[in-house]
Amino acid sequence: MVAVIGAPVAPSTVTPTAGAPAPTAAPPQSRGRVRRAGPPVRFWRGVVLGLAGLYFLGPVLVAFWFTVDGADGPSLAAYTRIFTATGFVDAMTSSLLLGLISVAITLALMVPTMLLVHLRLPRARPYVEVFSLLPLVIPPVALVVGVRGVLGWGNGSEFVEVSAVFTALQDKSLPLVLALMYVVIALPFTYRSLDAGLRGSKVTVLVEAALNLGARWPTVLWRVVLPALRTSLLNAGFLAFALVMGEYTIAKILIFPTFPVWLAQSGATDGQLQVALALLSLAVTWALLLIVVAVAGRTRKAKP
Amino acid sequence: MRSGTAARRARLPWSWFGLVPFFGYVSVFFLLPTAVIAYSAFRVRGEGGASTFGVANMSAALGGAYLDALWNSATMSLVCAVIAAVLGMVLAYAVATSRGGLLQKLVSTSAAVLANFGGLPLAFLFVAAIGNAGVLTVFVQERLGLSLRDDLGLDLYSRGGVQFVYLYFLIPLMVLVITPAIEGLRPEWREAAEGLGARGWQYWRHVAGPALLPHFLGSIALLFCTAFSSYATAEALTNGTLAITPLRIDGALSGNVLAGQENLGAALALSMIVVVVPLTLLYQLMQRRSSRWLQ
Amino acid sequence: MRRTSIRNAGIILVAGAVVLGSAACTKKADATASPAAAATATSVADVGGMEALIAAAKAEGSLNLIALPRDWAGYGDLIDNFGAKYGIPVTVDNPEASSADEVNAIKSLKGQDRAPDAVDVGTAFAISGAEEGLYAPYRVATWDGIPETQKSPDGTWYADYGGYISIGCDAAKVAVCPASFADLAKPEYRGKVALTGDPLKSNSALMSVWSAALANGGSVDNIAPGIDYFGKLKASGNYVPVKATAATIQSGETPIVVDWDYLNAAKTKDLANAGVRWSVAVSNDATIGSYYAQAISATAPHPAAARLWQEYLYSDEGQNGYLAGYARPARLPAMQAAGTVDPALAEHLPAVNVKAEFPTDAQATAAKNTLTQTWASTVQ
Description:
The structure holds 3 protein chains of 3 kinds.
Chain A: H1 10-14, H2 39-68, E1 69-70, E2 73-74, H3 77-81, H4 88-119, H5 125-133, H6 140-155, H7 160-169, H8 176-200, H9 203-212, H10 217-228, H11 230-246, H12 249-253, H13 259-266, H14 271-302
Antiparallel strand pairs in A: 1-2
Helix pairs in contact in A: 2-14, 4-8, 4-11, 4-13, 8-11, 9-10, 11-14
Chain B: H1 5-16, H2 20-41, E1 43-45, E2 51-53, H3 56-61, H4 64-96, H5 101-115, H6 120-130, H7 135-144, H8 159-183, H9 187-195, H10 200-229, H11 232-238, H12 245-253, H13 262-294
Antiparallel strand pairs in B: 1-2
Helix pairs in contact in B: 2-13, 4-8, 4-10, 5-8, 6-11, 8-10, 9-10, 10-13, 12-13
Chain C: H1 2-24, H2 28-31, H3 44-47, H4 50-60, E1 63-66, H5 75-86, E2 90-93, H6 99-108, E3 118-122, H7 123-131, E4 135-136, E5 158-170, H8 181-184, E6 193-194, H9 203-215, H10 224-236, H11 246-251, E7 256-260, H12 261-272, E8 278-282, E9 289-297, H13 303-314, H14 316-324, E10 328-329, H15 332-338, H16 343-347, H17 361-378
Helix pairs in contact in C: 4-13, 9-10, 10-17, 13-14
């Protein structure tokens, strides 16, 4: 599925404590809570929040009951069955590795690019922004049609090296072609995250200061820029990783056994297992996000 | 350090090379497949397997049942987007005005997770809850003697059911997107309005509404695109029986019935792109406009 | 100065890399050795006899198959027995893949070692793939035993097994099992009838709708009554648009499934342990029969093994293997005449009490077009 976290907003909302305090502070109290309301509004607010809680938590709880409702009473058998399910370990490993590779490629590609744009080429920013937002425009279910075409062309190429590369990209146990595509699909969100982080942390000022104090570029990058960007790097990494772990469309149509594809097929034989895994993936995503927020919070506290 | 305009100017072209990896990557892994889609959409396979240029596939994709599917996709996504936008805004406002910082953090974290949680796992959750053999369905059947589908008209495997499930990730997405805008509504504006004698609804109509409107409309565009492009959830819930374009593309590309229809799949993909592009531009435009007031 | 020389060095390096790179690419035409004799063999005689074929297949060392679930038409045992008999390990890729995926795999994996050697596809895909030149012509030793209408004249594809549309039913959950399409509309089956997916994606679902057409005044040239019939079933709530699988049968979501008889029959044993008493009946008012087809990939990485696989499938042992999976092998009439059918296996096939229709490919294309245009609006 496409457009996941609301791109321009995710960084500041996900890590509410990480809006770095700018040296030239914004006017106090210009941002913050909306004015609090009186009793009747409080009642309606309670109703709204209650209904929301019911709608979002309800299915989760009911589904959990579905997974523990065994023939002989409640049991966690569905959860222990996960590890022995055929193909689970391979599919999970594949997805995890793809996730890590995608994150690595994303950071390796985007961090130098964003730094270059912010520090040296502000004129390039609109172009980079447009290119980063392009993937939002094409739904993955449509994009995969084109990807299949390119893969077919590459496989049938008359150059041995070219088709060997394409073969390696489509290796069943670790389809790197998926990682390469996932980087593209995550681009709008990772771009926004890094962009917000770079702007919020006033990287240009920090770099100027460091250079004026006599630091060389490697030192500046390693000890000034990257730590300042830690939160947005984590955010971008989280977004990319979560996207990869949940991406079904492209993997299914290209027929690669990643975790979501395996999950869909597992339902044909074991319905409880499928729902148990769905709940687990929700829990794991949550845990990951909490870790990101916690690390971000610690980053904030570390600043004087 | 370096100085002099001459040295600066000489350096500029060199620095642009640093952007080559980025532009190159996007060109190869995104623009190239897109070009292939546009190319294949206008190729027609003739008798004997030879391909030529033609509009047969495009006209098939834009007519008959495929046009119905496109229309279905669009209307379904629009309805979901508007409902999610309104509900999401109400929820975001309720959270933003509440006292507990814990609640706000909880909601923002949950929203980030749930907005991400679409697709398969979501479908399975709902099937387990209110599917034909779901916990609630069976419970209602056994205890109350009612069938969710027949007596209460709640059918998960229908268009309405799919829309209901879409809201599960669209509303959190809306909350994520609109919360900073709501937080950007300065309290001074409300106080000033009340000082001038405005009532609650007048404040909304003349002050907060117009300030939020571009952001709201832009969010609807974003929600629409998200719902429109969704494939996994609908596929898992209805197994391809819902008449929407993403499922038709899947049927044209891989299935046991339609043979040799990959170009039709490309034509369908192109038709989806043509719908989504202007809306994405609209979203971007609205983002720029609303950020002027609410930054 | 230093910067300019660095820049120059960089430019030379990049240019050199590009030149070297393009010169180093080897064209496939130069790189491949001459194709093995087996790759162009159109019959066992071309390879030098059965012994030579077996030797060549063993030398190749493995066989790649695709989209063959183990419980489909007895393929599990067929694959195991083939592997044991000839000592050739068999790899089955993507058991859940569809016919379109198989054809696409031939195209997209061309030249790779894991490309499929032989495919088992629906007739429409056999014909379409033959048009694209994806298959190598080959006539098995028992070629004459395959009925004329079930193979292509140039030997690019040939029917392997088939069946009839049937109604499977869980007797533990349904009091009286339906035996015909007319029965399915009865009120006591409300919320119980399912197909194996969307007719636009699932071949058996398509044939189910078509059989319903036959039962309701339609014909092999007119599928519309079947679509209307399912529209009626959906409106009355009898038909649930859920894809029937073993899991949905077990959970009670889909106690009645319209599917190929060999697939339904195989479930009886598989699901017996789960408390499901699955009974199968070929619908008595009308049914459609259809065959799947075998084809050898023209670019098979193991051409001799592929041909040996075909020889095995069409031998008496192979065809009886299909019978064991409740499917009707293509050579069944010939084998019955020659007396080589395993009588016990022939007995356990579901009985057919009505004359079945076998649509041609042209009729199938027309039916699919009608279905594409009207299914969604009628059955939503």
